[in-house]
Design a protein that fits this description.
This protein is of the alpha/beta class and about 140 residues long. It has helices spanning about 15-25, 45-55, 70-80, 80-85, 115-125, 135-140; strands spanning about 35, 60-65, 90-95, 110, 130. Strands 3-2-1-4-5 form a 5-stranded parallel sheet, sandwiched between helices.
Length: about 140
């Protein structure tokens, strides 16, 4: 038996609901020990943006950017890898923060810009997470 449903459920979404949902992705308001970007893997334009944000700075906390080996190589050719490493960050290739053993590295709070990572980190890595924009996360650790 196949039933047809003629009623359409209407869900009203406003900026308050969106903000509430985004805020709900963070499990703490502490400053991250590690900011981890690239879930899914960072593109060259995302790496360029990070390089621009950290250029000339010395990061007070750790920064990892996960990407493919090919994009890491392009980042090196473009000079982005050197800028990020000079600030204290790392570009990590061919792995993902979700499967990396970050819980074994004395980190307690990870900052992410990915809703996917914000959902996985507390459950899989058993660590607190701060979800925010790349700009805000870099400010937190600069």
């Amino acid at each position: 038996n196949h039933e047809t449903f003629n009623e359409t459920e209407v869900i009203n979404i406003n900026s308050e609901i969106i903000k509430e949902s985004l805020d709900g992705l963070s499990t703490t308001d502490k400053i991250p020990d590690l900011v981890c970007l690239g879930c899914p893997h960072a593109s060259i334009s995302e790496i360029q943006k990070v390089a621009t944000l950290v250029k000339g700075k010395t990061l007070k906390k750790d920064l990892w950017i996960c990407t493919s080996q090919a994009i890491k190589a392009i980042s090196k050719q473009c000079g982005y890898l050197d800028i990020i490493e000079a600030a204290g960050g790392k570009i990590v290739s061919d792995t993902c923060m979700v499967v990396a053993p970050v819980e074994e590295l004395d980190y307690e709070v990870i900052g992410v810009n990915s809703a996917k990572a914000a959902n996985y980190v507390p459950n899989m890595c058993k660590l607190d997470v701060v979800y925010d924009t790349v700009e805000n996360l870099i400010k937190l650790i600069s």
